[in-house]
Design a protein that fits this description.
With 226 residues, the protein is an alpha+beta fold. The protein is built from 3 helices and 10 strands. The chain binds copper (II) ion (CU). GO terms for molecular function: copper ion binding; cytochrome-c oxidase activity; oxidoreductase activity. Keywords: Copper, Electron transport, Membrane, Metal-binding, Respiratory chain, Transmembrane, Transmembrane helix, Transport.
């Protein structure tokens, strides 16, 4: 998800900046108080003598408040971003129930009312590009964990429970989902393809699947003589 790489780059940038300031200040003083440095004999600390700082703790106060400001605003900003990610589940986009089993993935597409639409796939998840995809992850047997690393989305698949999460793909390309919970012999091969389609192509595909699902159920009812 976009926001996670944003958080990553802000932390990396600020960390590098703080590191550069600290190491730069250290090198500056190391030179200043060295034999060849600018400080004269009286200023230079003697071996075994405690350094005497000037400014009555001004430097200490300044560095403490600066670090407090940086750390507190980072915490607030990260927390706000994560709240946004958490609060985004629900009312928009498409809903898919992801069901793990030993050893593969079933996908049940839900309609706008959150009910089964009759469209199901195994081993391949198709989603539209630039659209929020809400996942309801569950399991048919043992603990699994559904994750698409390239899209920064992951959720536990636990029998009898539903984990809700969402993602939004910004490029129409193919990804791979893996299982991230050791679940038995076939665990390492427990993958699913994730096909991100242009919206129109997705809608065509979905309509087609809907139609054939309806034909199937009509056929079943006829065959059962109802
Ligand atoms: Cu698994």
């Amino acid at each position: 998800m976009q926001v996670f790489s944003e958080i990553y780059w802000v932390f990396l940038g600020l960390g590098t900046l703080v590191g550069a300031v600290v190491i730069g200040y250290m090198l500056k003083n190391a030179y200043k108080y060295s034999d060849r440095g600018g400080a004269d004999e009286k200023e230079r600390p003697k071996l075994g003598e405690m350094p005497t700082g000037g400014g009555k703790g001004k430097k200490l106060f300044l560095s403490l408040s600066l670090s407090a400001i940086i750390v507190i605003s980072l915490i607030a900003w990260t927390y706000g971003t994560l709240l946004f990610v958490e609060g985004q589940t629900g009312d928009q986009g498409v809903d898919v129930e992801v069901e793990g089993y030993q050893f593969g993935w079933n996908f049940h597409y839900l309609n706008d009312d959150g009910e089964y639409s009759g469209v199901n796939t195994t081993g391949t998840l198709r989603v539209p590009v630039d659209t929020q995809v809400n996942l309801q992850i569950t399991s048919d047997d043992v603990f699994h964990n559904f994750g698409i690393p390239a899209l920064s989305v992951k959720g536990d698949a636990i029998p009898g429970e539903t984990t809700e999460t969402w993602f939004k793909a910004t490029e129409a390309k193919n990804y791979t989902a893996h299982c991230y919970e050791l679940c038995g012999q076939g665990h390492s091969y427990m993958e699913a393809g994730v096909i991100v389609m242009e919206e129109e192509a997705y809608n065509d595909w979905y309509a087609e699947q809907r139609a054939s699902a309806e034909n199937d159920s009509a056929g079943n009812i006829a065959a059962a003589g109802v």
